[in-house]
Amino acid sequence: MTNILRNIIARAPAHPDLMVALMLLLAIAMMIMPIPIIVIDTLIGFNLGFAILLLMVALYISSPLDLSSLPGVILISTVFRLALTIATTRLILAEGDAGSIIHTFGDFVISGNITVGIVIFLIVTMVQFIVLAKGAERVAEVSARFTLDALPGKQMGIDAELRNGHIDENEARSRRAALERESQLRGAMDGAMKFVKGDAIAGLVVICINMLGGITIGLLSKGMSFDEALHQYTLLTIGDALISQIPALLLSITAASIVTRVDGPDRFNLGTDIVNQLTASTHAVRLAACVLVVMGFVPGFPLPVFLILAAVFATASFVKGPKKGANVTAMAPARPHTQSVPAEALPFALFLARSLAHAIDEDELHQHITRVSGLVSADLGIMIPRIPVQVDQQLPDSEFRIDVEGVPVEQDLMDPTQLALADDRANIELSGIPFRHDPGTDRIWIEQSHAPALTAAGIGHHWPSEILALRVHTALTRYAPRFVGIQETRQLLSQMEQEYADLVKEVLRTTPIPRIAEVLRRLLDEGIPIRNTRLVLEALAEWSEREQNVILLAEYVRSGLGRQICHRYANVHRVVPVFIIERETEDIVRSAVRDTAVGPYLVLEDRQSEMLLSQMRQIHSNMVPGQPGPVILASMDVRRFVRGFLTRNGIDLAVLSYQDLTSDFTIQPVGSLHLTAVANKGSVEEHRNMHVAPADGTQHSITE
Q: pTM here?
């Protein structure tokens, strides 16, 4: 028998499910079968020890989710304790004895006075029932309601952080699982607290049954006098009630400490949380010490006691508690300047050579990058992911690189000791401040030592961190379509659905989300903001059922955004300067469109391509930096092919269609683009002519 028991104990840790099942079966057996007194003593000791263990675990966990099994534990322990109460009641009424623990405990509490024992039991029961169980039940109920109400918002927050690149997919999945566990825990605790409350009520009923039943049995069955029966059965009843209520009280404290815990960014155990927060303000602790000193001089108050307490408070104000971050096991490590996130996991990242990273102020760089990210986000109406700054050991000195989705899109050299001119070159030349000009570019550099002179002369300039931020701004604008996918589109529609539910429903009826995402990307690819989402959705609702081609659908959506498009390219007088592609030229472009397996494509003759490209470059070179430049105006069916031609040749010129124009803005033709058919022989000059009309109204002809 001993060997069998030893084997069961040895195998129990490997089979926790069997342990729980055996405990429940034992509880049921105790309700039906008589239990020997020695076993009762053992089970009472186990019940008390288990309640103490639960309380200690609750105090040392850093988050309620670390003890998510507590609702089930409350159920099992309550059933076990009630079964134990039934078993002890049977022994008290049948044999007049319930084991040494109950007898000793009852005798110790009563101390020869039955009234004292009854009063103590009633106080303990009332404290548990009215204060702990009732309060914890209310907190659990409110927490469950608030947690469930806040669940959709928290899930949307996780989706937003994932979209912005603040977290990766694994972290998002982990946070969603934590949210689900938290909601389940709060809901389960709301129900589990009913067990705690019912346990306290049952304790009151049991003590009445035991006392009245025991006295009756003692008088009628065992021939005891009233005093003997009253003393013996009251002693056993009080002992049994208290030995049952104390574990229940500990369990109530455990449950209350769990439901009242508040998760924060710094995860500590309850004791550390309390000490950290109570001693966070040394002034408050010292003021409390002063108040205690004053209270000590109140007539009749024990002065030494208050002086000792004041000394303890004053000492505590000079002793620093555990610093935030000391609980390493419960907190994520701090992120250094150089992050270890792989480039392929980031939608957008800036990489610096080590020498460049050491020469630039990290906080200043992050501030400027955050600022330009906010500008792009506000301008285009998209969410920009967090842009990490990392050190790449492979980059040569003073070089930086910008990656989009793990692919380098820009890499350049920058001297961190130089300032960049952000003004007219003539101003720096007239000032006499020495500068350096990069051959083949329009970049002008000045030594940082001349910064005061530049400021005094009112000459605009950029510091190294601003230069990097501006390059990030350019890359963000250029690759903005990469930040809008199916998930981002779904999130955008969810936000719009709160105010325009019928509109979103109508759009989704005819347009799948991938097609909507493609339309948004095509708009962003040409610098068209999508922040006016309602106009985009209205255009989609109007045209998506009639036009299945996503390219043409995007053109119709552009017409719905006509006012926004014109405003983007208009000057302060609401005038949009345009270069008009002549009808003959449009016919040439239209006839050069070829249908391929991947869609229509513009295939111009070499000489025609050179003619058109030369004219576009001249327009681009005449643009004034910082001012709205002229746009190219073409028919809707030709517009996108001209725009694609410019993009492939690295020319950033806006191309509008006549459908993009609105009556709110004035269109001012400043020139025309003319392209003639190329003959079999002859030079480009024989077949190409460009007429430009400047804004001042004078006319001149440029022939190349």
A: 0.50
